[in-house]
Write a structure and sequence with these properties.
The structure holds 4 protein chains of 4 kinds. Chain B is 69% helix and 0% strand. By secondary structure, chain B is an all-alpha fold. Chain C contains 4 helices and no strands. The chains are: A mainly alpha, B mainly alpha, C mainly alpha, D mainly alpha.
């Protein structure tokens, strides 16, 4: 049920066009920000227009231009892509409000650049979500890397430059050094790069080659933060809070895992994965190790943003492990974990930024008792923690449920154990923060005496996303319908 | 040994040429090397004459042995360097020797595959060349086949060759000419100590060249005009014309020549020669022909198509002659005065 | 000997060219490099001319003679004109290159007061 | 007149040069417009020819000079120029880039060469003539003459740089003449066995009857090595960095993108048309050597660029490594490799042109291009800086720029041939270029405190004049446009230009 329609292309393009307009309106901040909201709303509206069709099982396709023989700059909208795009664009709105609250008072004139790059980044994230083939995906993936660099180095001090350097080196090196050759080998072997239900490989392709390619892709999309190519993520935390929250909790890292989901389901094919133990084994082992190690490291971090970053690395591996299980519920869990983790983590990052703005506290050890000064922020933080740990009534519970189901479906009991251990670790590193903030005695009373909630422009977005953590729990069924459509296309064996 | 398919003189000349060439490169004294190189070029002329390539020999005599040698002299005179110091790069020389030896061995590996020397049935002599020999008369009424091929069959090459000369002239002017506006350049001290022997002093040379120059110029004009029937043509004639002026400046004074031949005159005339050639070609297009198809000019030139070609060839040869003559003068003036246009060899 | 004599010309050509090549690569003196270049070029010219030569042939200017008539020449008895044209071009190109090379050498001499490559290199890195 | 378009491509810049030399004595201001119009006619002709070519059935257009065409048993007796799918693209690229570079150069020439610019544009135009001639000619000896036209004018153009450029130009002259001589000798060796110089006639003779001839093989190697010397292929690359660095901006901007690329074209033409892919495949030793040298060339160029501090030198070493891409791609001798090599000729011409134009803009305003002194460039010349970043991104191979697609094909070719060292070298060079891009960004954008913030020093904007900026932007944007239209280029032109090569 494919239907050619140019809407996907326009959805991708809108925020890029917005970027152009934004850079023209450098002297009129109100108009500039109005453009962002307008673009976001149009984008959401267009996405919603596509939603009923996708739920009916339609695939919207559009080819802009052919880049290589058989491979074009083409878009294809399916359930998972739409869901991912929807999450990115929806969360863009609160984050923009938050940015206004954070940056306007600072009278920082490079805000225009900030918003313009931000819009391009959103464009490319949606582009990845809608890509119909590996090449298109790779193109948007690279644009995303480049457009987020000015955001990471926004402060332009030594630390920012260092973080930015690390960021680009990790992301470009891996994508050019591993993902690109892997893609070329796929093209050379099969003559096609399209994401297709049963994968593109013929049956006679050797398992060894597939395993090598799988590893190349896993590490090539280093945005997914698999160890040992994860170090860019803590380094990129020097960016302003809105960047860390939207990009490094939602857009950039999720683009990494989303790319891996796409490649595993669309290029390798779920059947092929399920029938090739060596392949699934290697994915599961890499993801499993990252998962546990990252959680342990997170436990030892005192810097709040660093702890959040390592937590993100661990949570991303949930998704990859879910794919590696190669069972229907595993993949469903993986696809669902993208939005669920997104709302949770974005709340946490926004809170971290707010805490720093309100109290100047970067380290967890400084946060004893601050909950009484900034109750709204810390409540939001608590809800976000619940979502990431996976406790009801937050969205994280749903996705982890599917993931655990997946382990049982594919008889990988050890993965079940890993998931549980990791969830316990999540609880161990998040809950004490909220607990101490509310109940522990302030260690440095004088310092936080004058601390109060930051401006409403920052508080409201946090509360919105915190509410989102609850909402996704109740609307999880709708989300599952989207994922189901995706599964119908890619994961149902014929 | 009587029925050897080669000329006996040639083996001798070839061996001699080889000796001269190696000597020229091995000599420490630069002036000596230049003279030996001139002799080497003359030897080459002899070899080519015995092989039947009179036009090439003629050109080599004028260009290789004549003008080239003078160019080298001028450079040496200007810089005052007479001997090369022994450069110590032995290892590099051996390395380069190995490269040259390897390349030579590689080239000789094709030796058994070559046709014998002088074989009239070799591919070179039996593929396209017979067409030229058989048709030169019918196509253009020109007995000197070299002229026909040069200016007509492969006329495009010759246009470009003229352009090459033109480029060399502009290139040397732009490289060497010292900008008068900025010519506060300190004069290199070598000029203050010219060689002990000053050629401008010699009365015999002055008188001899004064007598020779008109004849040279007359001869050169003849060479250009009679190129259809005898060896020669635009190139050779042009070079000789140029050489006559060069001779004047060597035997008299460069200043004298410089007054007469300013940069403006030389450049305009050099460009004019190329222009004549290119415009004859364009005229062919305007007359409904192909570029450089002189036959199309038969409506403006006297005679039938073949004669039109013959006249077209003459026109372009004149263009070539003008360009070559003035570029040679221009190049010489620059090299001899080191771009200062005041004095020199 | 029987094999070499008919191809003696090629051997001389190769030796000449390689001497020129060696000189272009190894000689430190810029003028010597230029002379080497010229010798390399004459080697090539000699190569072309000798492949166009024919036994007992006349120069490529047609005349009424015993062997052939004006309109119907005996092709085997006229030297190949094509190789000669090519080499006329090559000679002219050669002298143009030589002129430009010498002009550059003069300029280099003005700057460094030397024709020796090593000295010039030392001057430049100083 | 349509019939004569092929000759106008070459003739227009030639006549432009001659008229420019003439007018420079009467109306010096006229020289530049004269050259410009010559280049423009040339561009129009080549552009029209593309359409003529697309409409023609045979896919090849001949123009026989002097009307001397095929004479039966003798073959083609005159000189023939041909336009087919392979060279029509390159002709258009050369004409467009030279036209833009001419517009770009007018200001910088007036400043850098004040008082001496008399013959500059004449030589400029003659260089273009030579390059176009090499591309369009159908005769291997005529190619040599054009090669020398291009070479002689480039020696002079480089020597305009004064100072160290004289020695650089002299070294180029020695190496270039050596290359040309080897080429001519190779032509001689081929000529000995075939007796013809026309490429079409040769292509009928060599692959069929002269497969085993040692002389033809030696000729092949000589021609290829000669072309290598001309294009600064490792280990004959020593002349290039100095020559292009010390040349004036305008010469560098014209020579760097075009001169080496056209030599690569000549090599590919000889390889696939005069000889054939079969012939190449049957000389495996040469193939292995060429591929190894390409990999070394890529690595040497990349590593040396890393050690340089001058942006122009860096760019010059990039050329050395890019040459490795193209030679390697051609010598992979399989379908994707050759496609990649031909595509990369166009892509690299555009990339190098953009790079040198950007450098020219910076040089024009700041007077130097030392990497360390570029701090704050983004605030001083934002448009130029963004163009520089896009160009570097293309050189790295970031999609959707053209650099990505050529790399895509080249690596695909390497994978198909199993030449992993070549694929590895390509990737390493990409990464090294990425490192240099980071350096440029860090210095140009991050090194000075953001002037937009309150309290920091403001940096006034000072872009290059529009006549320089607009060509730079056009070329930079063409990098993206070329990338987007890759498929059109490949299927409509390059695929038709190459012989059928069966996949193994």
């Amino acid at each position: 049920m494919e239907e050619a329609q140019s809407t996907p292309f326009w959805i991708v393009l809108i925020s890029s066009m917005a970027a152009v307009l934004i850079s023209l309106c450098r002297r009129a901040p109100n108009i500039r920000e109005a453009i962002i909201f307008l673009a976001a709303i149009i984008k959401l509206a267009l996405l919603l227009m596509l939603a009923p069709g996708v739920l009916d099982g339609k695939l919207y396709t559009f080819t802009l231009i052919n880049l290589l023989p058989n491979v074009g700059l083409s878009f294809k909208v399916d359930g998972a892509g739409l869901l991912f795009a929807f999450v990115s664009v929806t969360l863009w709105i609160p984050v923009t409000i938050y940015s206004i609250g954070l940056l306007r008072p600072k009278n920082d004139l490079s805000q225009t650049r900030f918003y313009a790059c931000f819009s391009i980044a959103i464009s490319s994230a949606v582009g990845v979500a809608f890509s119909a083939n590996l090449l298109t995906m790779f193109i948007f993936y690279e644009i995303l890397s480049l457009s987020t660099y000015p955001l990471v180095t926004h402060n332009q001090d030594d630390e920012a430059i260092k973080g930015g350097r690390k960021y680009l080196i990790y992301l470009l090196t891996t994508s050019v050094g591993l993902a690109l050759p892997a893609m070329i080998i796929v093209y050379q072997q099969t003559g096609s790069l399209d994401f297709m239900g049963g994968g593109v490989f013929k049956d006679q392709t050797s398992n060894t080659l597939l395993t090598v390619l799988a590893v190349m892709f896993l590490y090539g999309f280093a945005k997914a933060g698999l160890m040992p190519f994860h170090a860019w993520l803590p380094g990129a935390m020097v960016a302003p809070a809105p960047v860390s929250s939207l990009l490094h909790a939602v857009a950039v890292v999720k683009v990494g895992v989303f790319s891996i989901i796409r490649v595993m389901t669309g290029i390798f094919g779920v059947d092929r994965l399920a029938n090739t133990p060596s392949l699934t084994m290697i994915i599961c082992i890499i993801a499993g190790i990252t998962l546990v190690t990252a959680s342990l490291i997170a436990l030892s971090q005192d810097n709040l943003k660093a702890r959040l970053a390592y937590s993100t690395i661990g949570q991303l591996s949930y998704i990859i492990l879910g794919v590696g299980l190669a069972s229907e519920s595993g993949i469903a869990g993986a696809a669902l974990h993208i939005p669920m983790h997104a709302v949770g983590k974005i709340t946490l990052f926004l809170c971290a930024g707010a805490i720093y703005e309100a109290c100047g506290a970067k380290y967890i050890s400084q946060m004893n008792g601050i909950g009484r000064k900034i109750p709204l922020t810390m409540t939001a933080f608590f809800l976000g923690s619940l979502c990431v740990i996976g406790l009801p009534p937050t969205g994280g519970f749903i996705s982890k449920w599917y993931l655990l189901n997946g382990t049982l479906d594919s008889n990988q009991q050890w993965a079940f154990v890993i998931f549980l251990i990791s969830s316990l670790l999540n609880a161990a590193y998040f809950l004490p923060i909220a607990y101490k903030a509310f109940f522990a005695l302030p260690s440095d009373e004088a310092k936080y005496n004058k601390a109060s909630e930051p401006s409403m422009l920052m508080v409201i977005p946090m509360l919105l996303t915190a509410t989102g953590c609850l909402l996704v729990f109740f609307f999880s069924n709708t989300m599952y319908q989207f994922v189901e459509q995706f599964l119908n296309v890619y994961a149902k064996s014929n | 040994m009587a029925d050897l398919p080669i000329w006996h003189y040639d083996t001798l000349f070839l061996t001699l040429a080889l000796l001269f060439g190696i000597t020229a490169l091995a000599m420490q004294n630069l002036m000596g090397a230049a003279i030996v190189f001139g002799a080497y070029s003359f030897l080459m002329c002899l070899i080519w004459t015995t092989m039947g390539a009179v036009d090439v020999a003629f050109t080599e005599a004028a260009v290789g042995a004549g003008v080239s040698t003078v160019f080298i002299f001028a450079t040496i005179y200007n810089t005052g360097v007479s001997a090369t110091p022994n450069s110590p790069r032995i290892a590099f020389k051996i390395f380069a020797g190995l490269i040259a030896f390897g390349t030579g061995a590689f080239l000789l590996s094709a030796l058994p595959d070559f046709p014998d020397w002088g074989d009239p049935k070799s591919p070179v002599n039996s593929t396209i060349a017979p067409y030229y020999i058989a048709n030169s008369i019918t196509d253009a009424h020109v007995p000197n086949i070299v002229t026909t091929v040069l200016a007509d069959y492969r006329g495009f090459d010759t246009l470009l060759e003229t352009t090459v000369v033109f480029i060399a002239c502009i290139a040397i002017y732009s490289i060497l000419r010292i900008d008068n506006a900025k010519s506060k350049v300190t004069e290199p001290d070598i000029i203050t100590s010219p060689p002990a022997y000053d050629p401008t002093d010699s009365l015999i040379i002055r008188q001899a060249s004064r007598i020779m120059v008109p004849f040279m110029q007359l001869f050169a004009l003849y060479v250009i005009a009679h190129g259809h029937y005898s060896p020669g043509g635009g190139f050779q004639g042009g070079v000789i014309l140029g050489a006559s002026i060069i001779l004047l400046s060597i035997s008299f004074d460069l200043k004298h020549v410089l007054q007469q031949w300013t940069e403006k005159k030389i450049m305009i005339l050099t460009a004019l020669g190329v222009l004549i050639y290119a415009m004859v070609g364009l005229a062919c297009i305007l007359m409904d022909g192909v570029y450089l198809d002189y036959a199309a000019l038969d409506s403006v030139l006297p005679g039938d198509e073949a004669y039109a070609r013959s006249h077209g060839i003459l026109l372009v040869e004149i263009g070539v002659g003008i360009t070559v003559m003035f570029s040679m003068i221009g190049i010489y003036i620059n090299l001899a005065s080191n771009g200062r246009f005041d004095r020199g060899l | 000997m029987e094999d070499i004599i008919p191809k003696f010309n090629y051997i001389v050509v190769v030796v000449l060219m390689m001497t020129g090549l060696w000189s272009m690569l190894a000689q430190g003196n810029l003028i010597k490099k230029c002379i080497g270049m010229a010798i390399f070029q004459t080697g090539i010219i000699l190569f072309f001319i000798s492949i166009g030569a024919k036994n007992d042939a006349l120069i490529p200017i047609l005349t009424e003679g015993a062997n052939h008539t004006f309109d119907n020449p005996n092709i085997d008895k006229v030297t190949n004109p094509l190789t000669q044209i090519l080499m006329l071009t090559a000679i002219v190109v050669g002298v143009a290159t030589l002129g430009v090379g010498l002009a550059l050498a003069q300029k280099v001499y003005q700057q460094h007061d030397s024709f020796d490559e090593d000295e010039i290199l030392n001057n430049q890195t100083k | 007149m349509i019939k004569h378009l092929p000759i106008f491509i070459v003739l227009a810049p030639l006549l432009g040069a001659v008229f420019a030399a003439l007018t420079s004595w009467y109306r010096p201001k006229l020289s530049f417009p004269v050259v410009l119009s010559g280049l423009f006619i040339s561009f129009l002709s080549s552009f029209c020819l593309i359409f003529k070519l697309l409409n023609s059935e045979s896919g090849i257009i001949h123009y026989q000079l002097g009307g001397w065409g095929d004479k039966g048993e003798y073959g083609i007796v005159g000189i023939q120029i041909t336009v087919d799918y392979l060279n029509s693209l390159i002709l258009t690229a050369v004409t467009i880039i030279s036209l833009l570079t001419a517009i770009f150069s007018s200001q910088s020439v007036n400043r850098e060469l004040a008082g001496q610019q008399r013959y500059f544009f004449a030589l400029f135009s003659l260089l273009v003539t030579g390059l176009l001639g090499i591309t369009i000619t159908g005769d291997i000896f005529n190619l040599y003459v054009f090669m020398e036209i291009a070479a002689l004018s480039s020696y002079a153009l480089i020597a305009y740089g004064k100072g160290r450029s004289y020695m650089a130009s002299f070294n180029y002259l020695i190496m270039g003449t050596m290359g040309a001589c080897l080429y001519l000798l190779g032509v001689g060796f081929v000529f000995v066995k075939t007796g013809t110089l026309n490429i079409e006639n040769l292509s009928l003779l060599i692959p069929q009857t002269l497969q085993a001839s040692q002389a033809v093989f030696v000729g092949f190697v000589l021609i290829i090595v000669g072309a290598w010397a001309k294009m600064a292929f490792f280990p004959m690359h020593g002349w290039l960095p100095n020559a292009y660095t010390y040349a004036p901006t305008a010469s560098g901007a014209l020579l760097a993108p075009l001169a080496t690329k056209v030599s690569v074209y000549a090599m590919i033409r000889i390889m696939i048309t005069v000889y054939s892919i079969d012939y190449v495949l049957k000389s495996p030793n040469i193939q292995t050597a060429a591929l190894l040298l390409s990999s070394i060339s890529i690595l040497v160029g990349s590593f040396f660029s890393l050690t340089q501090t001058n942006l122009r030198k860096i760019a010059c070493y990039f050329i050395v490594s890019e040459i490795g891409y193209m030679v390697g791609g051609a010598w992979l001798a399989n379908d994707p490799g050759l496609k990649g090599a031909v595509y990369h000729i166009i892509a690299d011409a555009a990339m190098t042109s953009a790079l040198f134009m950007v450098i020219g803009c910076i040089l024009f305003r700041t007077g130097q291009v030392e990497l360390k002194k570029l701090d704050g460039l983004f605030y001083k010349m934002p448009i130029t800086f963004i163009a520089l970043v896009i160009t570097m991104a293309a050189l790295i191979g970031v999609p959707p720029t053209c650099g990505f697609f050529s790399k895509f094909y080249l690596i695909q070719g390497a994978a198909q041939a199993g030449t992993w060292h070549f694929a590895g070298a390509l990737l390493i060079s990409s990464l090294i270029k990425a490192v240099i891009l980071f350096r440029i960004i860090e210095i140009g954008y991050n090194k000075v405190p953001n002037p937009a913030k309150e309290g920091n020093k403001t940096i006034p904007r000072d872009e290059a004049p529009l006549s320089m900026l607009i060509p730079t932007l056009i070329v930079t944007l063409s990098l993206i446009a070329l990338g987007i239209f890759t498929d059109t280029l490949i299927t409509d032109f390059i695929a038709k230009a190459l012989p059928e090569i069966p996949a193994p």
